[in-house]
Amino acid sequence: MGTVPVSVFIVVVFVSVVMRRLSFVNGAAIPSTVDGPFKPVTVPLDKSFRGHAVDLPDNDPRVQRIVTGWEPEQIFVSLSSTHDSFWVSWITGEFQIGENIKEMDPKTVGSVVKYGRWRFGMTETAMGHSLVYSQLYPFKGLQNYTSGIIHHVRLTGLKPNTLYYYQCGDPSIPAMSDVHYFRTMPASGPRSYPGRIAIIGDLGLTYNTTSTIDHLMSNHPNLVLLIGDASYANLYLTNGTGADCYSCAFSDTPIHETYQPRWDYWGRFMQPLVSKVPLMMIEGNHEIEEQIEEKTFAAYSARFAFPSEESGSSSTFFYSFNAGGIHFVMLGGYADYNKSGDQYQWLKKDLAEVDRKVTPWLVATWHPPWYSTYTAHYREAECMRVAVEDLLYKYGVDIVFNGHVHAYERSNRVYNYNLDPCGPVHITIGDGGNREKMAITHADEPGNCPKPSTTPDKFMGGFCAFNFTSGPASGKFCWDRQPDYSAYRESSFGHGILEVKNETHALWTWYRNQDAYGTTGDVVYIVRQPDRCPVEPDVIKLNSKA
Q1: Would you tell me which of 275, 329, 426, 502 could form a disulfide with 400, CB atoms 3.0–4.6 Å apart?
Q2: Residue 403 · residue 202 · CB < 8 Å
Q3: ω before 174 within 30° of 0 (cis)?
Q4: Gap between the Cα atoms of 120 and 265, Å rounded
Q5: How far apart are CA 330 and CA 317, in angstroms?
Q6: 509 with 16: CB under 8 angstroms?
Q7: What is residue 7's predicted lDDT score, i.e. its pLDDT?
Q8: Locate the Purple acid phosphatase C-terminal domain: which residues (predicted)?
Q9: What is the CA radius of gyration of the chain?
Q10: What's residue 423's pLDDT?
Q11: Please, are residues 503 and 496 in contact by the beta-carbon 8 Å criterion?
């Protein structure tokens, strides 16, 4: 055998030492998925803690309009598809609500961002586009809504991992914002990752939400992913009357109403965070918001900037982007996901173009989970799983994040309901703190297994959830114990932090709202094993007409 070069030996020793240090926190060993599959764990419900899932009132200072005239508000930043581009969004002017409203002309105010690497040297200027949207109802007595002017400006030519200062607004009025800042993502590469990525779902705008965001901000994230269900404006009638359960309290309304000002309240509350930390959003069921002519998702599609065009998508419902050495695929659980549809064809092309030597990590997100064991929404997205799971498995997706179920659950590596060392880890984190409160019952507990006919999603339709045909639950619709694929579940509000350390190791930490800042609820190293689970790349011809 030949002699190992000293430089190689030093690198191997260094990596070994670093990983040993990474494997311990406060003296306790952190488990890794290589140690799995783990024995299922259910943390007993703390009945003394249900959180304060009561919505902030409209007179709370954190949701009130504090700007005047055409000054920008509800400012937030989001990523484009690569590190060298950012979106800046904001709203000018006041919304209108009532029976007789008139949309503002978006051209009334310019969409301008001044930015630069020095606070007092913002010499670059970018211009974008503006729009308004309306929520209209064809029934007498319901109040209609039209938004302020929404602005989206894309900044390009940015340097990686660099702090930029910016102001947004219209300098000709003048009506410019205060100076804000953001940091770009690292350039894509196998050793280049954002420091901390916060993951939240089903956030709402309650006192519990404020606890979630306070805890999240204390962890100083570089990026935030919101896995659907932001404002919960659709828990309200158009007159501002709200309830924890819309269908329970307002079963006789001719259409599912919304109170759109809750979106404005939400945007104001979130500004201190998302004006400096990019927020990437994907739609949830509470963004559907039906209105006149069967229109849906109007607020969602208008208020957020998406890198759809940059990532080759034709829709705001699905897109992708890079954050350092991670490729994120944001999928629509409420858009056509069948194999003949646009989303599936786009996803197939997007995954085929991923170079795992540049972005080793592949993370997918969508709202309704496939592997939740709670009674709420149990196997609701089974048709999506049947259509899409094979494709995600083929391309070696490492982690899946979902919301929808208002609790926390982490799976073992799983594929087609079977433990599989090459399957992704599925994490349900719909525990942001919304008004509908927590999910607390499990489908495997006596008397809690729902009837199959009640499980399909009402918006997407279809029926794919049949009894299991193999394994311990063969012939049944639910297991009679916590399923083997469920590693950890707990009913608490909170958020998660993903820290990718290198090409193979990522630290996942879930934080509960009721704990002291910095105290962890669930922590595990998610480990990629590319030698054990190789991904066979597809060679595609971008210009092929085939």
Answers
A1: 426
A2: yes
A3: yes
A4: 31
A5: 8
A6: no
A7: 41
A8: 476-515
A9: 23
A10: 98
A11: no
Question: Is 345 strand, coil or helix?
Answer: helix
pLDDT for 299-329, tens place per residue?
A: 999 999 999 999 999 999 999 999 999 999 9
Structure-token match 């079963």, residue found: 251
Handedness of CA 100, 103, 108, 111 (dihedral sign): positive
What tokens appear for 233 in the block?
Answer: 């404006």
Q: Which residue has the tokens 């690569």?
A: 82
Packed helices 261-274 and 207-218: angle between N→C axes, nearest 10 degrees:
20
Token pair for residue 132? Answer: 């308004």
What is the amino acid identity at position 461?
A: G
Cα separation, 300 vs 121, whole angstroms: 34
Model confidence, pTM: 0.93
Question: What b/e readout covers 306-343, taking b as 16+ CB neighbours within 10 angstroms?
Answer: bbbebbebebbbbbbbbbbbbbbbbbbbbbbbeeeebb
In angstroms, the CA 399 to CA 365 distance is: 8
The residue assigned the tokens 């990752």 is 193
Does residue 129 carry a catalytic annotation? no
Query: Helix, strand, or coil here: 275?
Result: coil
Q: Please tell me the distance from the alpha carbon of residue 50 to that of residue 434, in angstroms, as a whole number.
A: 12
Q: Residues 6 or more apart from 24 whose CB is under 8 A from it?
A: 30
E runs forming strands in 303-407: 319-323, 326-330, 361-365, 399-402
Under a CB-based contact definition with an 8 Å cutoff, are residues 203 and 281 in contact?
no
State how beta strands 129-131 and 149-155 pair.
Answer: antiparallel
Q: What average pLDDT does the chain have?
A: 93
Instruction: For 451-518, give the secondary structure using H, E and C.
Output: CHHHCCCCCCCCCCCCCCCCCCCCCCCCCCCCCCCEEEEECCCEEEEEEECCCCEEEEEEEECCCCCC
A 10 A CB-CB count for 445 gives 16
Residue pair 158/184 in contact (Cβ under 8 Å)? The answer is: yes
Instruction: Give the contacts of 234 (CB within 8 A, at least 6 positions apart).
Output: 246, 256, 257, 258, 286, 288, 289
Name the band, by pLDDT with cuts 50, 70 and 90, for residue 47. confident
In the set 377, 442, 495, 505, the catalytic residue is 377
d(CA 214, CA 221): 12
Q: Please name every residue paired with 90 in a beta bridge, in sequence order, or none if there are none.
A: 151
**For 365-418, what is each residue's pLDDT tens digit?**
999 999 999 999 999 999 999 999 999 999 999 999 999 999 999 999 999 999
508 strand-pairing partners: 498, 524
Structure tokens at 4: 């190992």
d(CA 193, CA 200) in angstroms, rounded, equals: 19
Q: Please state, in angstroms and rounded to a whole number, the distance separating the CA atoms of residues 281 and 279.
A: 6
Report d(CA 295, CA 258) in Å as an integer. Answer: 13
Vertex 478: Cα angle to 433 and 31 (nearest 5): 60
Question: Residue 350 CB: number of other CB atoms within 10 A?
Answer: 18
DSSP reduced 3-state for 475: coil
